[in-house]
Specification:
Largest sheet: none
Shape: globular
Number of strands: 0
Helix content: 55-70%
Amino acid sequence: MMASSDVDIRGSLFSDQNPSEMDALCPSPPGPSRPQRHYERIGGRTGTSFCQTLIHLLKGNIGTGLLGLPLAVKNAGLVLGPVSLLVMGIIAVHCMRLLVSCSHHLSVKVNRQSLTYGEAVQYGMENVSWLRRHSQWGKRTVNLFLIITQLGFCCVYFVFLSDNVKQVVEAANATTFSCQMNHTNQTQTLVPSFDSRLYMLCFLPAIILLVFTPNLKYLAPLSLVANLVMTASLILIYFYSLTNITYPFNLPKVGRAKDYPLFFGTAIFAFEGIGVVLPLENKMQRPQSFTLVLYMGMGIVTFLYISLGTIGYMCFGEQIGGSITLNLPNCWTYQAVKLLYCFGIFITFALQFYVPAEILIPPVVARVSERWETAVDLLLRTVLVIFTCALAVLIPELDLVISLVGSVSSSFLALIFPPILQILAFHEEGLSPLVTGKNVVISLVGLVGFLTGTYIAIVEIINRNAQKHEETFSSYLVQ
């Protein structure tokens, strides 16, 4: 769930090259890049291996979105949900493959060694005479959605951290070693504490200090530990859900039509890993093997999404929360799972924040004198973190924030842009009417998902806030 290639530190706001988490933790080795037309490494340059690329692809697609999929399956229904996830996974992988194919085609055409997502759209538009004058806007639009997506992830992280830590704190006095199933939200509120928004403000100073890290390579050991603890947490979540599944005869096979757009937003949020595709392919030692990596990695991701979404919903039923961690029982083992996953998300915040920060901050820093560069850089980082925290405080609903971010930005990056790019890139070569029709249908599905998902998420946010204010006012009158 990250963006694309390297960053020009002194470039414009939407520079030709975009950063990614992969560039921060795994920078490209020195030496000449491979020409795309040769499609192989030259000059003895080393790149990432098959297994390393596969791990990075899995890392880029597995995060908080996975934990929200049981609620997504509830919104779609026990049968329609898994089927829809499978279809969405196939379409998402197809769009990733389209992006790689278009990048190869266009890089040969313009004699470039590699292209970022934004550059691919820019050169694709230059391929059509009446769009050539506006090609820069194609790149800027992609970069804008990358920024919105990454800052949206950061907002989700604030809400996730506050909800899970709040739950652990409230249940601390009664946490036991017994993990019994009661088919409800397992961690009961035993000692009411602060509002979740106050927890977000408590996390704010720590996250600001975290993003002050001058080089994300310093976080690489912590990132490795975070990946390990998140993997262990997922194994325990699967174990608990599998051993406590109830007979799902009373669960609806198809959900309500008005809830399906919320399913779409959550699902596309989880599948939006298209931003890592080109950076990973460009860094491979044997990039001709990337197609196999893509199909294998996304096959694993799709299996995890469908299995956890279905098992989690069957386990907790109508009581499933915005994150399955919020339904885990009140015992030390699963309270530790929540805290460990929170640690992983905390470290991942810096990696996700890296992308918008390296796009937005350098152009501003380049305009000040050298003595003020560090101060301005830190100030802007602080402002961006405060901005994401403020958005999370305004919308402290984990499931709705995930759905809104997915509907607004992920639908464009994952479903709408790639099919359009293929039509632009192969405009002169000519596409068959069948391929063109297929691309139009995929883009229209993404557009409809964007419109309906955004509308329903905003309506639900307004309704929940109104309900909370009404409940608060009623309790005040009673007192």
